[in-house]
Amino acid sequence: MQHLDKLVDLVLFHAVLEWVVEPQQVLAALYDALKPGGVLSLMFYNVNGLLMQTVVLGNFGYLQAGLSKRKKKTLSPDYQRDPQQVYAWLEACGFNIETKTSIRIFYDYLRDKTRQSERFDEILALEKQHCRQELFLSLGRYIDVTARKPIQKDEL
């Protein structure tokens, strides 16, 4: 909030939460930056998607190492997030979760990577069809959550 002159209606916070050490403090700061009724779009790297891809690729060494990176300076996120934990953090801040959408449910798991471009329209249609349905919701590479800061009753 220290860099804002006033509260905002919308915060897009995509692919950042998985890089921060203290996510609960960051989410609380985002909550404080929003006007009552404001919306947070939070997209984060899903640990379930990473686990699924690791198994599909047969990378059992990485799995046995607890999905921890060997090299500290890589493009892979430092802190893959458990969706249930993120949802609990959002609710603890005071947010009301409105939607959950999975990103890259099928695309990343294709063994034949040429299919990603050759059959892109079909894959995209499947992604759109299943992106908000469990079991698929929990397996996407990323999850985008739309959460709203409540309007205070005394402001109505």
TrEMBL record:
The chain crosses the membrane at residues 42-63. It holds the Pfam family Methyltransf_11. One of its GO terms (biological process) is methylation. SUPFAM superfamilies: S-adenosyl-L-methionine-dependent methyltransferases. InterPro entries: Methyltransf_11, SAM-dependent_MTases_sf. This is Methyltransferase domain protein. Keywords: Membrane, Methyltransferase, Transferase, Transmembrane, Transmembrane helix. GO terms for molecular function: S-adenosylmethionine-dependent methyltransferase activity. Residues 5-41 form the Methyltransferase type domain.
